[in-house]
Amino acid sequence: MRFPKEGTWSWKVLYIVAIIIKPFFLRLQIEGEEHVPATGGCVIACNHTRGPDYVIVGYASPRQIFYMAKAEIFAYHPLVAKLVASAGAFPVHRGRGDTHAIDQAIEVVRAGHVLGMFPEGTRSSTGSLQRAKLGVARIALGAQAPIVPVVVIGSEPVLLDALKFKRRPLVIVRFGPPIEAEGAATSSKDIQRLTTRMMLAMADLLPAERRGYYADAKVLPAEDSWTSEP
Question: What is the pLDDT of residues 35-44, one digit of tens each?
Answer without folding.
Answer: 999 999 999 9
